[in-house]
Design goal:
The protein is an alpha/beta fold. The chain is built from seven helices and five strands; from the N terminus they run H-E-H-E-H-E-H-H-E-H-E-H. Helix content is 44%, strand content 10%. The longest helix has 18 residues. The termini are far apart. The N terminus is likely disordered.
Length: 223
């Protein structure tokens, strides 16, 4: 295995372990206390530890950075971070109806699936959960965006390929936007090990602007 592939493999493995959140990390609030702007854009982020600022100072994760960017790019846009470390697509699917009813988002970003792969859950179930969440968001009147993930090759090339393709399949079937790999430019860099926290699991704060840029490229046209 070449060095670049080895680093990607190690980082992805560590990421997968961390997404489970065996040791609970900071969990983003399920609703912000800021004044809501009537009729304005409201973005609901439904994710796992990668979006819940696990091991980071408050306000340094990509969701918080998105909120800061929107103050300049799209004033009046509210961001609700409903991400929980360790969440799966099943967990997200069960939580989403109440969130949609309570928050009434105009946009929904779904960043879930990594835990499903780590646990070796059937890909059919993951796809069904993703599809159900996308449909629920659309039925609630929100523009939906899927955020994809990749897994290390030691889980099997076929499983990894099919897992990665699940996000594309759902996005195509439901005709929604897709960001293929949240950690592009982080986990696949030659010095990837230097971009993760001491646990070699979660990205450092310096990686989150890259993650935000990955999301922003796809999200901006939806706004």
């Amino acid at each position: 295995m070449r060095r670049r592939e080895w680093i990607l493999h190690c980082s992805a493995c560590a990421l997968a372990l961390g997404v489970v959140g065996v040791t609970p990390g900071p969990v983003a609030a399920q609703g912000r206390t800021e004044a809501r702007t009537g009729g304005g854009r409201r973005i609901l982020v439904l994710g796992d530890s990668l979006s819940a600022e696990y091991g980071l100072a408050r306000g340094s994760g990509w969701v918080a950075l998105l909120e800061q960017r929107l103050k300049t790019e799209k004033p009046g846009t509210e961001v609700i971070n409903a991400s929980i470390s360790g969440d799966t697509t099943s967990g997200g699917r069960s939580r989403l109806p109440a969130l949609l009813k309570q928050q009434r988002p105009t946009h929904l970003i779904i960043e879930l699936g990594g835990n499903d792969a780590l646990r070796g859950l059937p890909l059919k179930m993951t796809r069904e959960n993703l599809k159900a969440m996308v449909q629920a968001g659309k039925e609630a009147g929100a523009k939906v965006m899927l955020v994809g993930m990749q897994i290390p090759p030691n889980m099997g090339a076929a499983y990894g390929r099919d897992f990665e393709g699940s996000f594309k399949t759902v996005a195509q079937e439901e005709k929604v936007a897709l960001q293929p790999f949240l950690l592009a430019g982080v986990a696949d860099r030659p010095d990837a090990a230097d971009w993760f926290q001491g646990d070699r699991i979660h990205p450092l704060a310096k990686a989150h602007p890259v993650m935000l840029d990955n999301v922003w490229k796809v999200l901006r046209p939806l706004l």
